Amino acid sequence: MNLLKYQIFSKVVEIGSITKTGEILNLTQSAISHALSSLEAEFGLCLLIRNRSGIRLTNDGERLIPHIREILQLNEKLNQEVAALKGVEIGTVKIGTFSSVSIQWMPQIIKQFQNQFPHIEIKLLDGNYSEIEEWIADGTADLGFVNLPTRDAFHVVPLQKDRMVCTMWQNHPLERQSTIRLEQLIDEPFIMPIAGCDTDVKRIFSQNKLTPTIKYELEDDHAIIAMVQNGLGLSILPEMILSHLPDIVCYRPLEGEYYRSIGIAAASIKNASPAAKKLIEFITQWITNVPIPPHYRDL
Predict the structure, then answer these.
(1) 118 partner at 20 to 30 Å CA-CA among 145, 169, 185, 200?
(2) Are 178 and 171 in contact (CB under 8 A)?
(3) What is the largest CA-CA distance in the chain?
(4) Bond preceding residue 149 cis, omega within 30 of 0
(5) Alpha carbon of residue 280 to chain centroid
(6) Alpha carbons 8 and 25: distance in angstroms, whole number
(7) Nearest CA-CA partner of 280 in 113, 135, 102
(8) What are phi and psi of 66, to 5 degrees?
(9) Do strands 235-238 and 155-169 pair parallel, antiparallel, or not at all (unpaired)?
(10) CB contact at 8 A, 188 and 172
(11) CA pair distance 1, 260, nearest whole angstrom
């Protein structure tokens, strides 16, 4: 078994580029191509399709990539266990995060974690809820932040509830209210988040049997805030996202109090590597002890 071939294959699939994989692994492009061809020859299967649009897995490659990633994870876990027996905590943990967690939590978590565990490396994979779930399921990420509820197959540690609030531009008539009724949003131009907290927003309207007047649909939180800032519509976003709003944008809680629930998930916490377990334990403790930011308090 040649683990370097597996590592190269997995990284090429993750990155989608032989050149970039070579830069990351400090290998020449010809060495990457040779390793891939050697692996295909060893299996007697075509694993990748290479064309002008990039690199993608064949059907055979799709079936084998989860097992190859599992082998790489087990090898990483073995190395970490051996180091732990020698009294050294080492390893690499790949964690999926979405933008608000990456901005609000991860800088302090990484800084404090690496002060305590300097030989454990954290690699961040930034994506939306669905991408993170897929990364956990296929082994691309060891663990990830998720919006609950998530897949039944995952092992989950709930972390924090994040209030959903209505964002509007300054001097909008609704700004004068301390809370906003959903019925008041129906006739307003609405900016719907997609590929993220849209599930939470749609659930809120659905529970109340209401349908917003959707004017725009955007994925990026900051783009939504910019649209609100320019008076193009109102939106509903998690409060965590709104920590550094421009002065011209404000928000008010919804009447009835609605939340998204953030957790951290893994395919199996019990079978996670020692480094991943350390990080899960650290994050859980950090969330418990972190002070509530001022923007989380009632207005």
Answers:
(1) 145
(2) no
(3) 69
(4) yes
(5) 15
(6) 8
(7) 113
(8) -60, -35
(9) antiparallel
(10) no
(11) 45
pTM of this structure: 0.72
Amino acid identity of residue 192, one-letter, is M
Contact 247, 220 (CB under 8 A): no
Whether 80 and 273 have beta carbons less than 8 Å apart is answered as: yes
The tens-digit pLDDT sequence of the chain (299 residues) is 678 889 899 989 888 888 888 888 888 888 898 999 999 999 999 999 887 777 889 999 999 999 998 898 888 888 888 877 766 678 889 999 998 898 889 999 999 999 999 989 999 999 888 899 999 998 889 999 999 989 999 999 999 999 999 999 988 999 899 999 999 999 999 999 886 667 788 889 998 999 999 999 998 888 899 999 999 999 999 988 887 777 788 999 999 889 999 999 999 988 888 889 999 999 999 998 865 544 443 33
Q: For the chain, state the CA radius of gyration.
A: 22
The amino acid at residue 228 is: V
Q: Which residue has the tokens 């990483």?
A: 76
Write phi, then psi, for 262 (nearest 5 degrees). Answer: -100, 135
